[in-house]
Amino acid sequence: MNRAAYIVAGLAAALTLMFGAGVASAQTGGSAPGGTTTPTPTPSGYSQVFPIDSSVPHKYGGGFGASRGKRSHRGQDVFAACGSMLVAVAPARVIYRGRQSAAGNYVVIRSKALRQDFMYAHLQSPAPVRKGQILSTGQFLGAVGDTGNARGCHLHFEIWTGKWYRGGRAIDPLTTLRWWDSYS
After folding, report:
1. Which residues pair with 71 in a beta bridge?
2. Domain ranges of the chain
3. Cα angle vertex 135, ends 133, 140, to 5°?
4. Would you say 16 and 34 are in contact if contact means Cβ atoms under 8 Å apart?
5. Residue 118 pairs with which residues in a beta bridge?
6. Residue 61: how many CA atoms within 13 Å on its side-chain side?
């Protein structure tokens, strides 16, 4: 997607938040970025997709458990061009959206059906979603960036069984990411 398309997507996201999807679609002449990629059914019966738009070249970087000084890395880094579109991996509700010194701009979504939380960090700008918003699989939720303690443009992606920092635990997302990547 070129820069102009991202600008239109950002405008449509803002209109969606303010007025609903129908207005955003009418204003942009197409689907709102809230528009979706085509979800692919998985063996679990739930539709899930790779968190970065599938047409964007990407590579895997630092992984789960790598030393980060006094703590260990709780996710998987996926390097892609700054501005690359990020999408919801599954039907989910936005539970957190904010900024933190290490994570930069981040968003956490919860799939009640999968009993998992998904955390996206280092977003280019604050996520154009709001806490409590219900997202569909493939729905736009931000862009790859390098905010916070990031070296180069990438998505830091975490999967938590149970609730994020509320009794759940982080699991290594690499196998799941590679699975989604294989068909998205």
Report:
1. 68
2. 1-34, 36-183
3. 110
4. yes
5. 109, 159
6. 16
What's the alpha-carbon Rg for the chain, to the nearest Å? 15
For domain 36-183, the CATH architecture is Distorted Sandwich (2.70)
Q: Which of 157, 125, 138, 136 is nearest to 60 (CA)?
A: 157
Instruction: Answer left, alpha or beta for residue 152, where phi above 0 means left and psi between -120 and 50 means alpha.
Output: left
User: For residue 72, with 0-12 CB atoms within 10 Å meaning exposed, 13-18 middle and 19 or more buried, which class applies?
Assistant: exposed
Tens-digit pLDDT profile for residues 16-72: 333 343 333 333 333 334 444 444 444 445 589 999 998 999 999 877 756 666 666
Indicate the burial class of 67 (C-beta count within 10 angstroms; 0-12, 13-18, 19 or more): exposed
Residue 110 has pLDDT above 70, yes or no: yes
Distances (CA, A) of 135 to 94, 110, 149: 7, 10, 27
